[in-house]
Amino acid sequence: MRTQVQVAAPRLRSTDVLVGLLLVVVAARFLAPGAFDAPAVQAWSTVFVAVCLQALPFLVLGVLLSAAISTLVPPSFFARALPRRPALAVPVAGAAGLVLPGCECASVPVAGSLVRRGVTPAAALAFLLSAPAINPVVLVATAVAFPDDPEMVVARFLASLAVALVMGWLWSAFGRGRWLQLPPRHEHPPGTGRAAAFLSVVQHDLVHAGGFLVVGGLTAATLNVVVPRSWLDGVAAEPVLAVLVLAALAVLLAICSEADAFVAAGLTSFSLTARLAFLVVGPAVDVKLVALQTGTFGRRFAVRFAPTTFVVAVAAAALVGWWLL
């Protein structure tokens, strides 16, 4: 009796997409060298490089923290540090974002490691959203960017923290474990030292997350060039439309949270509330962040979490802006 062995179909990874795109670019460089001198192509390449270089240091920081959590911190630490009840663990994890400077690229792999170490996903997601939005670096940058509007710092802090807490509590109430599909960790041979295990996890996670960062950067650069500035000026006079447009623009431009305040400060034709929406939505959901979340938690998670986060972020920014600004 013959035994039939089923071979799983090869899975397309972000690094495969990256290699394919690089091959296309190299081929196009030789086949059509003049095309790369066009102003639109140069603007696209500038934005793409800026997005990736801006996010890469924080991605590396997040990978290092993720590897440290995975290999150096005992699971019992999290059991002692966080309340057992998810409803109480969410605000504690959200407040932890105050003490960790970093952007959204750093928070995604850290949140993934927290889930692997037994932290309730609701708390890990609250940290994922709060860390890039309310840490001291971001708040100081916001104060510098808006020297004549100090209330923007308070408004950003309150609205961003509200998004983190609401999304954490929503996941605690309605989230399903089957929606989280964390990629398998590389298993280390018995007797592997902590230093070797740490370096192995760093290498694995950096390649994995870096590929999704590049894919997100490609998307952000393309949309950045396609969206005309004159169209933005035309909608600034409509209050509700201005909030929605800047919120959508934050998703498309994918600017790092340490730098987005200076971009928002330059959008002087828009109201403070609309610019607050830009600052609250960007660190919570943008194209590169969705790509990173897909690579870390799986597609079923991202298609549910990202749209819900967008709605909650817009609502929080509108309410806080109406109250404070």
Automatic annotation (TrEMBL):
The keyword Nucleotide-binding does not apply. The chain crosses the membrane at residues 12-32, 44-67, 88-110, 122-146, 153-174, 206-227, 234-255, 261-281, 301-324. GO terms for cellular component: plasma membrane. The lineage of its organism: Bacteria, Bacillati, Actinomycetota, Actinomycetes, Geodermatophilales. It is found in: Cell membrane. Pfam families: ArsP_1. This is Permease. Belongs to the UPF0718 family. Its main location: membrane. Keywords: Cell membrane, Membrane, Transmembrane, Transmembrane helix. InterPro entries: DUF318, UPF0718. It is a multi-pass membrane protein.
